[in-house]
Every structure is written in structure tokens, then in C-alpha cells.
Amino acid sequence: MVSQAKGLAPRLERRVGHVIEFITRWLALAGGASLVAITAVTCISVIGRELAGVPIPAFEVFGPIQGDFELVEAGCAFAIFSFLPWCQMRRGHVTVDIFVQPLGPRVNAGLALAGNLLLTACALLIAVKLGEGLVDKRSYSETTFILQMPVWWGYAVALVGAWVFVLASAYTVWRSLNEMLGDGERE
């Protein structure tokens, strides 16, 4: 007789987990690309500032990138929210293992379930409030000072990551429930 996996639709949970992990991985890679791009913008702008003061005619074309701070701000907002879902899926958030390690895998899964429930509630609150901020910034047509870029664009790209974070957190609740009902945390 084949043993039945324990939990709430464990096979479906694993399939859903693979899809969410795929999404979170690509979002994290996009966030990494964003960080590389804003690092390049910052370096080029700093070098341009330095070369702008050099009294050599060939360097007259150099200068800082206009609006570099605004680009870095929006890029960082996207990057931060891009990494949160991947971190959650990979169990990358900080835990105090010294206290929970001796408790056993099922108890640890129960503690993970409680933590994931709390984190899902926090992620949902953040996403809702970020969405409200986006609506507010968009309704006032607020723009950045130098580039005149709509401020809500930064909110919109961050909101994508925030909602994927909610999705990933909700999934980890399901995963932790199945681990608690089964044999404990799996790698």
C-alpha cells in the first residue's frame, strides 16, 4: 500500500510552489538587474562630475547624469520589493535557530507557520498601503524635480513586488501547514 502524503493537498501545494518559486526567482533577477543599472548610473554620474571640471577640451562633453538621484530612488524601491518574495520562498528571513533547533522538525514547522502567518499579514498591509500611496501620488500628478517623472511610477514598480511578496507569503503559510501536519520542515 502506498503511503499518502499528509497535509492540505500536498501535491498541489508543491506544484503551486514551483510556479511561485519561478516567478519570485525571475522577479529577484529583475531586481538584481535594476541594482546593476542604478550602480552604473551612479558610477557614470560620479565620473562625469569629476571629468566635467578637467580643463581638457575633450572632456567638455562629460558631466553628471541629470536626475541620477531620482533614478536611483525608483530603482532601489523596485529592487527591495523584488527581493522580498524570493527571500520568503527560500526561508531567508532571520530566525533564531539556537532556541528552536532542539524542538524538533514538527514544532519548528508550527513556529514557521505562526511566523509566516504574521509575515503574510504584514506583507498584505504593506501592499495595501503602498497601493493607497500609488493612488494618492497619481491623483495629485506629483512628479520628480529634475526629470519630471511621475512619482507614482516608482510606487507602481514596487507594488508589483509587494503583491508577489503577499503571494509568496501566503504560499509559505500553506507549505508550513503541510510540514507541520507531515514530517516537519523540508529543505
From TrEMBL:
Pfam families per record: DctQ (PF04290)
Bilayer topology: Multi-pass membrane protein
A GO biological-process term: C4-dicarboxylate transport
InterPro entries on file: DctQ, TRAP_DctQ
Top-level lineage group: Bacteria
Primary location: membrane
Segments passing through the bilayer: 26-49, 107-131, 151-174
Keyword field: Cell inner membrane, Cell membrane, Membrane, Transmembrane, Transmembrane helix, Transport
Subcellular location: Cell inner membrane
Presence of keyword Transmembrane helix: yes
MF GO annotations: transmembrane transporter activity
GO CC annotation, single: plasma membrane
Domain Tripartite ATP-independent periplasmic transporters DctQ component: 38-177
Keyword Cell inner membrane included in the entry's annotation: yes
Subunit structure: The complex comprises the extracytoplasmic solute receptor protein and the two transmembrane proteins.
Function: Part of the tripartite ATP-independent periplasmic (TRAP) transport system.
Family: Belongs to the TRAP transporter small permease family.
Identification of the protein by name: TRAP transporter small permease protein
